[in-house]
Design a protein that fits this description.
InterPro entries: Bact_polysacc_biosynth/exp. This protein has 12 helices and 4 strands, in the order H-H-E-H-H-H-H-H-E-E-H-H-H-H-E-H. With 387 residues, it is α+β, with helices and mostly antiparallel strands. The chain is rod-shaped and about 190 Å long. About 5% of the residues have low confidence.
Length: 387
């Protein structure tokens, strides 16, 4: 019996095709979830992905040396400027660099949209991306992915990184953001100085009003009490009382001598009347001083309170004026300033994307997805009810 060579060849080809189809069917999920993504990732990152250049700069916010504790005066205590530390100002700058305001301000000086839409970019990495409309919000989201400001607590520096598709665009955006940051620091200085001046002027106005009120109350009290200076009046009363007491003492000595030497002397009654009159005058003077609630002693206490209030208000006004003058001097000085430690560089070679690392990441992620799916499928088959 002879076999037809064509039939044998066709049978062999059919068997090979069946084996190939069986092999493809068996590894179809591996191909779909591992081989295909790996090939696409290798194709994109190896041949299509655009080069990305990174410009880096560093800056620090510095403040003048503060006064030592021994030089702190009452005026400096009263002058609450509201200034924080340089690190706090750096955080404000970082927040600004990541804001929509920074993008809007930068767009007035640098063509940010044009830089991110560079012809050097590929269809997947350039702006706008395939799913975006090109709005400002889309540009802002893209901007956040390309600009990063990060503080370094150890050194106190803030590092600014800018990614772009050409080295010139990366450097221009980085330099523009640094200039905007310097302007913001100057604005913060102006705002702090204006607030310090306003606070100092307000304290001067309050002190002046307090001095005026104290003087008005003291003058009104003098008019009401009909007394210019209770201290001087008290000294006059004490002098008059002392003189009357001396007179009474002399009269009593004279009366005692007459009664001893001439008990019937006709001048004795007159001397007694003079003694009584002198005693009445002494009692009157004592009453003027301390005898009643309206006496000089009570008026002197209130007068001294008003006088102390006027003196304190005057001292407070002096301190407030010193504080205002200090605020004016400090307003002419720069409280904080941005110092560039590292100028924005012009990159001479792209450092992104890391092509090999990206390809390996795609392969690894694909394998993970495949293994997770394979374990789920095995678990489902093991727990499936037998027919």
């Amino acid at each position: 019996m002879h076999h037809d060579p064509d039939l044998q060849r066709q049978a062999g080809e059919t068997t090979a095709e069946n084996k190939l189809l069986a092999l493809l069917k068996r590894w179809r999920w591996f191909g779909a979830f591992v081989v295909l993504p790996s090939l696409l990732g290798t194709l994109y990152f190896g041949f299509i992905a655009a080069d990305i250049y990174v410009s880096v700069s560093s800056f620090v916010i510095k403040a003048p040396d503060k006064q030592s504790a021994s030089n702190v005066s009452l005026g400096s205590i009263l002058q609450r400027t509201g200034l924080g530390s340089g690190q706090e100002q750096s955080n404000e700058i970082i927040g600004y660099l990541h804001s929509r305001d920074a993008l809007a301000d930068l767009s007035q000086k640098v063509d940010v949209r044009g830089a991110f839409s560079s012809p050097e970019a590929d269809v997947f990495s350039g702006f706008p991306r395939l799913w975006e409309s090109g709005s400002f919000e889309d540009l802002y989201a893209f901007y956040l992915g390309k600009v990063n400001a990060m503080p370094d607590p150890a050194s106190g520096l803030t590092q600014l990184k800018v990614e772009a598709f050409t080295p010139q665009d990366a450097q221009a955006i980085n330099l523009g953001l640094l200039k905007l940051s310097e302007n913001l620091v100057n604005q913060l200085n102006e705002r702090v100085n204006e607030q310090a001046m306003a606070d100092a002027e307000e304290r001067v106005d309050e002190a002046q009003k307090r001095v005026r009120d104290a003087r008005i109350r003291l003058s009104a009290y003098r008019n009401t009490a009909r007394i210019l200076d209770p201290q001087q009046e008290g000294m006059g009363i004490m002098a008059a009382s002392n003189e009357l007491i001396s007179q009474e003492t002399a009269l009593r000595a004279q009366l005692s001598q007459l009664q001893r030497m001439a008990p019937d002397h006709p001048s004795i009654p007159a001397i007694r009347e003079r003694i009584m009159a002198t005693r009445q005058q002494i009692d009157t003077q004592t009453s003027r001083a301390v005898g009643t609630g309206d006496g000089l002693a009570s008026r002197l206490s209130e007068y001294e309170n008003l006088l102390v209030e006027q003196e304190f208000a005057t001292q407070l006004l002096t301190v407030a004026n010193s504080s205002l003058e200090q605020a004016r001097v400090e307003a002419e000085q720069q409280q904080y300033y941005l110092e560039r430690v590292v100028e924005p560089n012009l990159p001479d070679a792209p450092i992104l994307p890391n092509r090999l690392k990206s390809i390996l990441a795609v392969i690894f992620a694909s394998l993970c997805v495949y293994l997770v799916g394979w374990m789920l499928a095995v678990g489902i088959r093991e727990h499936a009810p037998e027919s």
